[in-house]
Hints:
0% strand
Amino acid sequence: MEAVEWAEIRADLARMAGDFRLATGLWIEVCRARLAGQGVADREVHAAAAGALYCWTQLKDRVSVVESGPELIALLRALPALDPRLLRLTQARLDALRAVALPRAVHT
């Protein structure tokens, strides 16, 4: 549990430093660890999920959003007490950014 608490500290430091990609990944890992040991109804599990979701919403880089989105959605689905609107909004953002076509290379 001490390692989980250190990961939470690292996640908060990454968030404060504006490294939302790292913070998102750390919060997802913290939430998974807490979920495995504490269960779906635990307040700390929901706090970690909220941290992951917040940091993910701050990501501006499309690739980072698309890469971490499926993990986040899987985590949110594992929390039955979560407001279902959060899951729908997260899925909608991920779907929208997946649909954005990547620029094609110009052939000369």
